[in-house]
Amino acid sequence: MAFSNRVVEKYGGVYAPIREALSADLEAMQRREGLNEDPMPRTAAKVTQADIARAIRAMRAAGYPDVRVVFKDDAVIVEAAPKGSKATADHLRIISL
Q1: Helix H or strand E segment including 21
Q2: Which of 40, 46, 48, 93 has its CA 20 to 30 A from that of 24?
Q3: What is the mean pLDDT of the chain?
């Protein structure tokens, strides 16, 4: 629609009927497909990637070189990794921050 508006502005009203037809078709498709309805309300994240990155940096600054992030149903835990832990790669979930 933005492009069709620019065409009408640049080349005149002769293209206005085409823009109106495109607009009507778009509105009909949105009604037919239910695209005007929000399927799910968007809520803000309780914990963001930036929050986790800050917590990891704080743990490392406090002297813990190995830090792990544990995700549970209702919590995200950033803790010092146990010394001598020999977890295999298939048990780890690596998150790029």
Answers
A1: helix 16-33
A2: 40
A3: 79
